[in-house]
Specification:
Rossmann fold; 8-stranded mixed sheet; globular; binds NADP nicotinamide-adenine-dinucleotide phosphate
Length: 314
């Protein structure tokens, strides 16, 4: 019988029948960053359907207000909107402060913010934009909320990662692509690989508190990702790639499963292709990279103290 090589298991897992959860989330508070579009938005709708109160963390208030109004037509949940621009770490800090001041209990945190950029750009602090939005800002946001999250031993954190981590490794000495060639796939891959390393580090620090953190690939789905790129990219995307993509409902169902199923009680520090646990690429499993990327991320976010007490870790 044909045995799938490890590097291609993602194809098999992506086609496999996925697990499902029918758990309700009444009374829970779920925070979803990047919920103004795509995977984040459908997840928001799925969680509303399950009865969770919601906090939308978005950069575009008008867009969020429309989605909120639409959900409230059919669901009796509370929805708040918090503004944060994930290309600006100060903005992420302000959003976290607001959340800490408002919500005494957090049940689920989903970070779905993400971009893919064929052009190399930098944020106002000189950090390569994709690395900042996809990794650093989601790292900082999680980090700043984690003390509150760990007060709830049933809480779960889900980082929407990507099979795209396979396309690029983290060059610790050149995360800004000053000395090696930039491509959209490389920067995307590096950002998602960095996020995976920090998922492992978070999981080590959180395991004594019962809180779990996992990363997931939401499937190759029809969303607005990449629409910030040039006309040729957008033309190819709409007229070719689009036809191979799936409905993002599969992502929402998978995230709902990862957030609620009892099958995953205590399961932490894993990568899931939708709902199926999978080995990430070899470069992303390198233990020797996990702590250095954690420390670099803290440095770039100007975090001096460890908010999370870690026994024998640092
Ligand atoms: N689509 C896929 O096939 C696929 C595959 C693998 C992984 N993913 C991952 O899935 C996640 C969601 O992406 P998507 O496909 O759903 O794309 P999307 O439709 O473009 O959604 C991305 C979300 O991120 C937000 N965002 C982007 N830049 C931001 C910034 N600077 N500050 C705050 N929010 C920002 C967007 O806000 P606006 O609405 O304001 O633009 C939107 O809410 C990403 O992490 C992506 O890497 C997607």
């Amino acid at each position: 019988m044909f045995k799938w090589p490890e590097q291609l298991m993602f194809i098999k897992n992506g086609r496999a029948k996925q697990h499902e959860s029918h758990e309700m989330m009444n009374g829970m508070t779920s925070i979803i960053s990047g919920s103004s579009s795509g995977v984040g938005e459908v997840t928001l709708r799925r969680f509303a359907h399950a009865g969770s109160n919601l906090v939308m963390v978005v950069r575009n208030k008008d867009k969020a207000e429309k989605i909120k109004a639409d959900i409230l037509k059919s669901h009796n949940v509370k929805i708040d909107i918090v503004i944060a621009d994930f290309s600006d770490l100060d903005s992420v800090r302000k959003a976290s402060e607001m959340i800490l001041a408002t919500y005494p209990k957090i049940d689920i945190l989903v970070n779905s913010v993400g971009i893919h950029s064929t052009k190399k750009t930098y944020n106002k602090d000189g950090i390569e934009m994709v690395f900042c939005v996809n990794h650093l800002a989601t790292f900082l946001f999680t980090y700043l909320l984690v003390d509150r999250i760990k007060e709830n031993s049933n809480a779960r954190i889900i980082q929407v990662n990507s099979e795209g981590h396979r396309f690029g490794a983290v060059k610790l000495k050149d995360i800004n692509f000053k000395r090696h060639i930039y491509t959209g796939l490389r920067s995307y891959g590096a950002s998602k690989t960095a996020q995976l390393y920090t998922v492992y580090e978070f999981s080590k620090r959180l395991k004594d508190f019962g809180v779990t953190i996992n990363a997931m690939h939401p499937g190759a789905v029809k969303t607005n990702i990449g629409q910030n790129n040039g006309w040729l990219y957008r033309f190819f995307f709409r007229h070719f790639t689009w036809h191979f993509l799936k409905n993002p409902e599969i992502s929402a169902n998978a995230i709902h499963y990862l957030a609620t199923t009892k099958d995953l009680d205590g399961v932490t520090g894993k990568f899931f292709n939708l709902t199926i646990e999978e080995k990430p690429a070899k470069h992303a499993r390198k233990e020797s990279m996990q702590l250095p990327v954690w420390q670099l991320s803290k440095e770039l976010c100007h975090i001096e103290e460890d908010l999370i007490e870690v026994k024998n870790e640092l």
